[in-house]
Specification:
Structural class: alpha+beta
Largest sheet: 8 strands, antiparallel
Distance between the termini: 17 Å
CATH topology: Alpha-Beta Plaits
Order of helices and strands: EEHEEEEHEEEEHEEEEH
Strand order of the largest sheet: 7-8-1-6-3-13-12-9
Radius of gyration: 20 Å
């Protein structure tokens, strides 16, 4: 059995990479320009997990991220729309990229040998207790099998590294495999940084809030706190927001039916990887 499948039935491990990334520091957007954090935000990686596979039945939680390539930045002159006129304006965007090859010197997929970013991610899903109408959809084995099959095919939706113009790619991997450029660099501390949003349909509260934290990169590994970990998370309330409610419908198939449709289209999902359903 491949190493990446020796995980709990709610956990996925994958490699994600791309030419550029833009994990925007909100402080740099005031003047119309954007500058990326050096590290991915929790919300950006959670968005990648949701692009691989997601249903409102569960919530993705990002556990760890491993930085594989030495961090570099690159500025680009951009011409975004000027919303005060009919034309464009000029701006400087600072993207994060990386070394052309990281220390493992391995053969990689097309497009990942040049300069770019590369990360390994471990994440898991938990049932969303604020969607009681979807309680019948809580079948961890089938959700896990669909998530793995979706990951093997690069995700169900396009992968973005922070913003739409930063195309990314994902594939399964064993977290911690291979050599990274920060494996022996010790601890690197960063200042206050955006972590995630608190959405009402995931918190049960009728408020939208933001979360901030102070990350520490230890030998290339970033361990994320949960959004409700007040020992590490600083919260800021934004505004009132009504939660979304979901129920089984033509646009939200039960996982059993979705599993059967996917299995008939692509072959057995449980036999290949030993998932007991």
């Amino acid at each position: 059995m491949p190493e990446q499948f020796n995980t709990p039935r709610n956990t996925i491990e994958f490699r994600v990479w791309g030419r550029y990334a833009m994990f925007t520091d909100p402080l740099t957007r005031v003047g119309g320009e954007k500058c990326s954090y050096h590290l991915p935000t929790y919300e950006a990686i959670k968005g990648i997990c949701k692009s691989i596979y997601w249903k409102p039945t569960f919530i993705w939680y990002v556990d760890e991220l491993r930085v594989m390539r030495r961090i570099r930045t690159q500025t680009k002159g951009m011409k975004p729309l000027d919303y005060n006129s009919t034309g464009n304006t000029l701006a400087i965007y600072t993207y994060v990229t990386g070394n052309s090859q990281h220390s493992s010197d391995r053969e990689s997929e097309e497009g990942s040998n040049g300069p770019g970013v590369e990360y390994q991610v471990r994440a898991h899903f938990e049932w969303n207790p604020y969607q009681p109408a979807l309680a019948r959809d809580r079948n961890d084995g089938k959700h896990f099998a669909i998530a793995k099959r979706s990951l093997e095919r690069g995700g169900r939706q396009d992968i973005f590294l922070g913003t739409r113009e930063c195309q990314g790619y994902a594939e399964p991997c064993a977290f911690g495999s291979g050599k990274g450029d920060y494996d022996t660099n010790g601890e690197l501390q960063y200042g206050l940084m955006f972590h995630s949003f608190d959405y009402p349909d995931e918190t049960g509260k009728g408020r939208l809030a933001t979360n901030f934290w102070r990350p520490k990169l230890k030998d290339g590994i970033l361990t994320f706190p949960r959004p409700n970990d007040t020992s590490q998370i600083l919260k800021k309330d934004i505004r009132a927001m009504a939660p979304k409610s979901f129920g089984e419908s033509a646009d939200l198939l039960p996982v059993e039916l979705e599993f059967e449709l996917l299995e008939s289209a692509t072959g057995a999902l449980d036999g290949d990887h030993g998932v007991g359903l």
